[in-house]
Amino acid sequence: SITSMLIALLCLSAPGGVSLVVPQPNINATVAQNVLLSVEYSCRGVATVEWKHVSSWGTTKIVEWRSGNYVNISTMYKDRVTTFENGSIQLLNMGMRDAGYYFITVTEEYGTSTYGTIIVNVYEIIYEDLHFVAVLFAFLAAVSAILICFMWLCNKSLHLFQKTTTHKLTASTTEEIELETIEC
Predict the structure, then answer these.
(1) How far apart are CA 39 and CA 61, in angstroms?
(2) Residue ranges of domains in the chain
C-alpha cells in the first residue's frame, strides 16, 4: 500500500529511524470475542516490540519480542495472545477486564523509539434480559391459551344450558295447553 511504501522510505532515509502506523486506534469488542490489535512498523535495523495494557486495574506488560528472535509473553496472557511480524497482536477470548488502553513501543537497535495507542472498549451481551423477555412471553402465551380454552368451555356450557332450558319450557307449556283443553 502507499502508506507502507512511505513508511519504508522514511525509515530508509533516516538512519536508525523507526515508524509506526496504527490504522484502527479505537476498537469495540464483545465478551469472548477475539480482537486483532493491528499495527505496522518499519525500520532499518532490528526492532524490539513491546505491548502494555493500561486500565483501572493497573498496568500489565503483555508481550515483548525482537524481530526474528525471542518472544516473551507474560503469564497472564500466555494462552491468549498471538504475535505477528508487523507488530500486531491478537487477543483471544476478550473479557471485561481487557477494556482499556493498549500501548505499543517499537524501539530500534540504535535507541530510536516510537509509540502507538489503541483504545479497546469491551461490551457485555446481556442474555439475562433476553431470557426474561422470552420467559415472560411464554408465560403470557400459556395464560392466553388457558383463558381461550376456558372461554370456549363456558360458551359450550352456556349453549347446552340454553338447549336444556328451552326444551323443558316447551314440554311444560305443552302439558299446560293439553291440560287446559281437557278441562273444558
Answers:
(1) 17
(2) 16-125, 127-183
In 3D space, the residue among 80, 20, 79, 29 whose CA is nearest the CA of residue 50 turns out to be 20
Cα–Cα dist 64/49, whole Å? 6
Coil, strand, or helix at residue 9?
A: helix
Cβ distance 72 to 65 under 8 Å?
yes
Whole-number Cα distances in Å, 26 to 22, 45, 125, 152: 10, 29, 19, 60
Q: Tell me which long-range contacts 164-172 makes (C-beta under 8 A, separation of at least 24).
A: none
pLDDT in tens, the chain (184 residues): 434 333 333 443 345 589 999 999 999 999 999 999 999 999 888 899 999 999 998 999 999 999 777 789 999 999 999 999 999 999 999 999 999 999 999 999 888 999 999 999 999 887 666 777 888 889 999 999 999 999 999 988 888 888 777 666 565 555 666 656 565 5
- Give the integer Cα–Cα distance in Å for 121 and 162: 70
Query: Which are the contacts of 46, defined by CB distance < 8 A and separation ≥ 6?
Result: 66, 67, 68, 69, 108, 109
**What architecture (CATH level 2) is domain 16-125?**
Sandwich (2.60)
